[in-house]
Amino acid sequence: MSFVSPNSTRISKRFAELRASGELGIVAYITAGDPTIDATLKFVLALAEAGADVIELGVPFSDPLADGPTIQRASERALKAGTTLAGVLELVRRIRQSGSPFSEVPLVLFSYYNPILQMGLEKFASAAASAGADGALATDLTPEESEEYRRILATHRLDTIFLGAPTSTDERLAKIAACSSGFLYLISRTGVTGAKDALPDDLPALLRRARGVTHLPVAVGFGISLPGHVSVLGGLADAAVVGSALVSEIEKAKSVDGAAAALAARVRSLKEAARHGLSRREVAP
């Protein structure tokens, strides 16, 4: 049985495949342009080869309010290297044209709203779609202010992903889910991004609430860094989003090749946990 509509994006197709095989997805976040755009191209293909199901390309921003120190530093490094939103869109095009067997990995542009607004919604959506992006997440854009953004992105068949939080009421979660396509991104805890040792106790309750208001796949992020986290999420969520732990590997590495190898090793261990975790998902009927 197929879960895929003919109009679906690479993102929804990938989640349908994961659902059919009862497997938790791994969504990998890295900051584009850290340390360079050329390095990011290499990192994306290494992550995809290691088993990342969706890759979020962070667009560096000068005032990243939702990000913890690890991603803030990555943003600073990428901005110093001259990375712009236009440069990230060109990177997407290069990934798609790379000839790599992993060049078709679903790609999400993860940005604050300001760079998108500066470029112009129509110009952004058109450029993102023609480059080969699959969707966008504007961290600080609220559902109430997103109508035009969603309309324009939908015209270009780009998914619009929004963030739900533990502080969101059921009514609010329903509103966020109604604005989302591709998947719903649930923040596991309040505060900024950053790797943590344990997942919050109230996460299962938050996931149950989200399931009550949407049929979209649910990805959980903020604080996920260890295979154990992924094992626990197996029976609860559709995907785990890993960001700071990967960005930290790039920061620590002595070379671009070293960083690519470390990223691949980290995602491989997380994907292994996703495939054989304690609570591997029941295959959908």
Distance from N terminus to C terminus (CA atoms, Å) equals 9 Å
Residue share in β-strands: 5-15%
Major sheet details: 9 strands, parallel
The total strand number stands at 9
Low-confidence stretches: 1-6, 278-285
Q: What would you note in describing this structure?
A:
The protein is α/β, with parallel strands linked by helices. The chain has a single domain, classed as TIM Barrel (Alpha-Beta Barrel), CATH 3.20.20. It is 47% helix and 13% strand. A nine-stranded parallel β-sheet has the order 5-4-3-2-1-9-8-7-6. The longest helix is centred in the last third of the chain and has 21 residues, at 256-276. It is globular and about 40 Å long.
Which helices and strands, and how do they pair?
Blueprint: H1 10-21, E1 25-31, H2 37-50, E2 54-58, H3 69-80, H4 85-96, E3 107-111, H5 113-119, H6 121-131, E4 135-138, H7 147-155, E5 159-160, E6 163-164, H8 170-179, E7 184-187, H9 203-213, E8 218-221, H10 227-233, E9 239-242, H11 244-252, H12 256-276
Parallel strand pairs: 1-2, 1-9, 2-3, 3-4, 4-5, 6-7, 7-8, 8-9
Helix pairs in contact: 2-4, 2-12, 4-6, 6-7, 8-9, 10-12, 11-12
